[in-house]
Design a protein that fits this description.
eight-stranded parallel beta barrel, 14 strands, alpha/beta, TIM Barrel
């Protein structure tokens, strides 16, 4: 019987990749590096850097695309003026590399293209994310991935922010005094742009009526947050159980089809991982991609499931659920920071739990953010 090695992977920004550290991590047992090739805007605190402990980078492509890659496209890419992905790609030696792409989450791109951005039930365009329902967005993403994989060439691709992003994680200075739970977040996030409305109408949904119910439900959720403890029940009572189910189904179909478009832009021989989950009520950088949708897409080698902010009990539930939902295709994303991880023992135990639960691997977030102590936790956990 042939066993697949457990993949201990590190997520990294390209400007943080250091060849000596890469060798040390690989020697300790790290088996792969997922390096950001396209990413959202970030202000990064880099504890190990003496020259630039605080670094701000705008969203964009971290490589220079070919001259014709976006010729005639409705959406022009934003390119990092100091692209560093290709240099980082060459800096990790013999280790496996994945090109980590935040596909739709880009504040400058959404701000420059409000027509193609997510649009809420009040008609306001998002300033931080594009909508996967739009053919222009699909064309942009396809061109981006085709240039990255065809001209640059990468061993693998890791897709994040490939679904409906939503209200949370907007990269803005948020101000709120009431709890925004699962139900309120979905209501604030539900996209009703022209592309999504057309998809709703094709499915027999009156998009005008849907928008009206979403606005009313959001008002109730924000006025009485305690009433939303059971998110599914609250949403069904305000939207209507059948309409809610049909709306979520349409959203799921849009994400499924968008994932298929992305996979089609990448050579069949190039492995693909998708940051995703199965819960249709969630929004954010993880696409909603339940097992049946993943099977319909085909050609996706794995799903990276988030465990952000999960305590030990919740972490175990997520890991065990992920290997049921995505058998032999489950990776676990794990932040090496509080509140999840406060010691090397915490990290080793969480990594070990993923392994014994038969997950294929872990993704540790994020190389440049760790201080020397956290780096030692990573090397110790990999060695174990």
């Amino acid at each position: 019987m042939v066993t697949t090695p457990f993949d201990i992977g590190i997520l990294a920004y390209p400007w943080d990749v250091d060849p000596e550290e890469a060798r040390a991590l690989a020697d300790a047992g790290v088996t792969s590096f997922s390096i950001a090739a396209a990413y959202h805007s970030v202000r990064e605190l880099r504890p190990r850097s003496r020259e630039r402990p605080v670094l701000t980078r705008d969203a964009g492509l971290h490589w220079k695309p070919g001259a014709d890659a976006f010729r005639g496209a409705a959406i022009a890419p934003i390119v990092d003026p100091a692209p560093s992905f290709e240099t980082a790609l060459r800096s990790v030696g013999e280790a496996r590399v994945w090109a980590w792409c935040a596909v739709l989450h880009s504040s400058p791109l959404a701000a420059a293209n409000p027509k193609f951005a997510l649009r809420d039930a009040w008609g306001q365009p998002s300033r931080h994310a594009l909508c996967p329902s739009r053919t222009e967005v699909q064309d942009y993403a396809s061109r981006m991935l085709a240039d990255l994989t065809g001209r640059i060439g990468v061993p693998g691709v890791e897709l994040e922010a490939a679904g409906f992003h939503g209200w949370r994680h907007a990269s803005l200075h948020d101000k709120s005094a009431v709890e925004v739970g699962v139900a309120a977040n979905l209501l604030l996030s539900l996209c009703l742009c022209s592309g999504c409305c057309a998809a709703y109408e094709r499915s027999g949904i009156d998009s005008t009526e849907l928008a009206k119910r979403v606005r009313e439900a959001a008002h109730a959720a924000l006025a009485h947050p305690d009433a939303t403890a059971d998110a599914a029940a609250f949403l069904a009572s305000w939207i209507g159980e059948e309409l809610l189910a049909r709306t979520l189904a349409v959203r799921g179909e849009i994400v499924r089809d968008f994932t298929a478009v992305l996979r089609g832009a990448i050579p069949a021989s190039t492995p693909v991982l998708v940051h995703a989950g199965a819960d249709p009520l969630t929004t954010g950088s993880r696409a909603v991609l339940p097992p049946e949708a993943l099977s319909a897409v085909g050609g996706v080698d794995g799903v990276v499931v988030s465990t952000d902010a999960a305590d030990r009990a919740r972490y175990r539930q997520i890991v065990e659920r992920s290997v049921i939902d995505y058998p032999d295709r489950s990776w676990v994303s794990l932040r090496v920071m509080g509140p999840e991880v406060s010691s090397g023992r915490d990290l080793a135990e969480r990594t070990a739990l993923a392994r014994v639960s038969r997950a294929r691997g872990v993704r540790l977030h994020n190389w440049g953010l760790w201080n020397e102590t956290q780096m030692s936790w990573v090397t110790d956990a990999a060695a174990r």
